[in-house]
Amino acid sequence: MNRIPDNVTVIKHPLILRDMSIVRDVNTDTAGFRSALARIAMILAYHSLAELPLKEIRLKTPIQQAKGHKLDTDVIVVPILRAGLSLVDAIINYVPEAKVGHIGMYRDENTHEPVDYYSKLPPGVDSALVLVVDPMLATGGSADDAINFLKQKGAGNIRFTCLISAPEGLEKVSRNHPDVPIITASLDEKLNDDAFIVPGLGDAGDRYFGT
Ligand code: PRP
After folding, report:
1. Contact predicate 87/81, CB 8 Å
2. What is the pLDDT of residues 57-71, one digit of tens each?
3. Are 166 and 138 in contact (CB under 8 A)?
4. What pairing do the DSSP bridges indicate for beta strands 129-133 and 158-162?
5. Please, are residues 76 and 102 in contact by the beta-carbon 8 Å criterion?
6. Measured CA distances, 69 to 49, 62, 66, 145 (Å)
7. Is 122 exposed, middle or buried (0-12, 13-18, 19+ CB in 10 A)?
8. Nearest to 70 by CA among 55, 50, 53
9. N or C: which end of the chain has fewer CB within 10 A?
10. Cβ contacts of 3 within 8 Å, gap of 6 or more
């Protein structure tokens, strides 16, 4: 990839570099993987929510009347199962009222194409900020499918957040969905012949759930 697409933000932070090294390391156990991923997820969530629209409110401090703010949009988090579940808590920590939709998908080991097996969305995807989360963007097939599905359901304000991405997946999703900002903690080198991200971290779902 010659240049990073305009809709892609690769978050730079020393703690991300430190924690990405922990999640990449084949010798990191399940507990270490989970805690490092959770720390990266907080930084990703913070950046994914940076442009939330606000409404001005009036409030009363113990001293006097003051101006304040509340969120001016509903937030719906949509993890792509399974591995996407690992990024949900970070968003909910910042937006406790966020609703959660689920899209179940796994990647066929031979064709590398996504296979859908479940979906359940809360009402309101047409007006909410919809944050699709999945640790890995490899070929981009799963993200592309999930975003297409959400657009069919009326979603118009979608963001995609992932831990690690390959140039091939970023190009595919950016080409098909230039309106969808992508926030990632790492842009890796390439995909290998099995469509695994290189150098990558292996299979995020297996490492997070210990399977
Ligand atoms: C992984 C990952 C993404 C997908 C990425 O899921 O969590 O959903 O593959 O690949 P793609 O960009 O080429 O579509 P996996 O199939 O391992 O399922 P899991 O989440 O149940 O582990």
Report:
1. no
2. 999 999 999 999 999
3. yes
4. parallel
5. no
6. 15, 17, 10, 35
7. middle
8. 55
9. C
10. none
* Token digits of residue 42: 């907080």
Judge whether 34 counts as a catalytic residue. no
Q: Is residue 100 within 6 Å of ligand 1 at its C-beta?
A: no
Report the candidate in 77, 94, 40, 47 with the shortest Cα–Cα distance to residue 204: 40
Q: State the Cα–Cα distance between residues 168 and 161, nearest whole angstrom.
A: 16
Residue 28 DSSP class: -
pLDDT digits (tens, 9 = 90+) for 18-39: 999 999 999 999 999 999 999 9
Please give the single-letter amino acid code of residue 8.
V
pLDDT of residue 1: 64
How far are the Cα atoms of 69, 76, 84, 139 from residue 59, in angstroms, in the given order? 9, 27, 37, 48
Q: Exactly one of 9, 24, 73, 203 is catalytic; name it.
A: 203
Q: pTM, whole model, 2 decimals? A: 0.96
Phi, psi at 58, each rounded to 5°: -105, 140
Residue whose CB lies within 8 A of the most ligand 1 atoms, among 107, 112, 113, 115, for a mutation test? 107
Which amino acid would we find at residue 51? E
Distance CA 99, CA 207 (A): 26
CA dist 81 and 99 (Å) reads 16
What the chain holds in terms of domains, given with CATH numbers, is 8-52+70-209 (3.40.50.2020)
